[in-house]
Write a structure and sequence with these properties.
By secondary structure, the protein is of the alpha/beta class. It has a single domain, classed as FAD/NAD(P)-binding domain (3-Layer(bba) Sandwich), CATH 3.50.50. The protein is built from 9 helices and 17 strands. The strands form 2 sheets. Strands 3, 4, 5, 10, 11, 12, 13, 14 and 17 form a 9-stranded mixed beta sheet that branches. Strands 1, 2, 6, 7, 8, 9, 15 and 16 form an 8-stranded mixed beta sheet that branches. Strand 1, helix 1 and strand 2 form a beta-alpha-beta unit. Bound molecules: flavin-adenine dinucleotide. The site of flavin-adenine dinucleotide has 37 residues, from helix 1, strand 7, strand 10, strand 14 and helix 6. Flavin-adenine dinucleotide binds next to helix 1, strand 7, strand 10, strand 14 and helix 6.
């Protein structure tokens, strides 16, 4: 019997395991393999940028990123392209550019040795029994069952645990993200591109340089039209100097955007949700790594006084993070309403001149 079973070895799950692994018997279950090089096929679909909030959390944790997790170039500017309003602006912002798979592998490598990590396995179901929770998972075609006092769903957007156990509660707005990787060609630039066009999506699209490659990504309404819209985005970006050529690979992933704090679900009784499974992600920028860190820390702090009643303490510890979601939603109209965005960008407020 474990004290805690964590499903999901992304930033939320591995951070929680790192923070509580010395005090509790912890089992961490993860679908991906942390030992094999997953290459392009097993890539976590992510932009791999650590924004200032994620950097602040790394500072609070007192951990520094090893250099084999970094990818060049490091980025200091956002090029904002508003296609419909025909305006472009640059803004200063510092991102750490990482290899997301290497980052996740590194975060798991620093959990305490007492944590049992089983990768390459798939969580299937759970059952709240008298006094404990039973968790079923499979690996290499075999089924296993383990018991714990607390189950933590850190299984990301479209969390299976959230759908199974809290599917009746309001959920965040669902997007399908498509990312294609291209050879960068001569014109690749040292900025993070944020692209707004409400014909394509009511959220946004992005470009991110990665070594000799460039990612084009977009958060789109799920459905059969998503790929067509992605193609349309690519062709519209030609007028802005992008010529992507043939994609090297394409990935897709769900993203759950919380449009109100009522869509965040931290769990109850013997099941806690952290990170994107709970709905913790910025509704304005889709930045989620700092939220994964912060919700994991909130749960780790709640566990300092033991597992009993930890959910009440966790809920209390999440108040600031939920307020943050509320504030980010208040900021959204200035970014996602075409007229307000036009006003903001036209004013040039906070923008910088780029001298090339
Ligand atoms: C296209 C895209 C680009 C993004 N770019 C950025 C960015 O640049 N910067 C940023 O800060 N955020 C970004 N985000 C958001 C960020 O990726 C997430 O918010 C963050 O990864 C959430 O961390 P997490 O640990 O909660 O979940 P995840 O990182 O999704 O981890 C969940 C883990 O659970 C595992 N899992 C899922 N189901 C099971 C199962 N049944 N059994 C076992 N394991 C399971 C998965 O394999 C995964 O490893 C992006 C998101 C998308 C979709």
């Amino acid at each position: 019997m474990y004290d805690i079973i964590i499903v999901g070895g992304g930033p939320a799950g591995s951070t929680l395991a790192r923070l509580v692994g010395d005090r509790f018997r912890v089992l961490l279950l993860e679908k991906r393999s942390f030992t094999e090089d997953m290459g392009f096929i097993g890539q976590k679909c992510c932009g791999g940028l650590l924004d200032p909030d994620a950097q602040r959390m790394l500072a609070r944790f007192g951990i520094g990123i090893p250099k084999d997790v970094l990818m060049s170039p490091q980025l200091f500017a956002v090029r904002t392209i508003d296609i419909k309003n025909r305006i472009e602006r640059y803004y200063q912002r510092h991102y750490i550019n990482i290899d997301r798979n290497a980052f996740d592998r590194w975060l798991v490598s620093i959990v305490p040795p007492g944590v049992t990590v089983i990768d390459g396995c798939i969580y299937r179901s759970c059952e709240d029994k008298d006094g404990y929770i039973s968790v079923r998972f499979s690996q290499d075609g075999r089924e296993y069952e383990e018991k714990a006092k607390l189950l933590v769903g850190a299984d990301g957007a479209f969390s299976g645990i959230r759908r199974q156990c809290f599917g009746h509660l309001p959920s965040p707005k669902l997007y399908i993200c498509i990312q294609e990787w291209y050879r960068a060609g001569g014109g690749s630039r040292n900025y993070y591109g944020a692209i707004f066009d409400d014909d394509i999506t009511d959220f946004y699209s992005w470009t991110i340089p990665k070594e000799d490659r460039i990612i084009l990504g977009s958060a789109l309404a799920p459905g059969s039209d998503a790929l067509r819209k992605f193609g349309e985005l690519k062709s519209r970006l030609r007028d802005h100097g992008f010529d992507f050529g043939a994609p090297m690979t394409r990935h897709g992933a769900y993203l759950c955007r919380p449009l109100s704090t009522g869509q965040v679900c931290e769990g109850s009784r013997r099941i806690a949700l952290v990170g994107e499974a709970a709905g913790f992600i910025s509704p304005s920028s889709a930045e989620g790594i700092s939220y994964a860190f912060r919700s994991a820390l909130a749960l780790a702090r709640a566990l300092e006084d033991g597992i009993d009643d930890c959910m009440a303490r966790y809920r209390k510890n999440l108040q600031t993070l939920k307020r943050n979601i509320l504030l980010k939603n208040l900021k959204c109209p200035a970014m996602y309403n075409r007229s307000l965005r036009k006003l903001a960008m036209r004013s040039g407020l906070l923008s910088i001149d780029v001298v090339e």
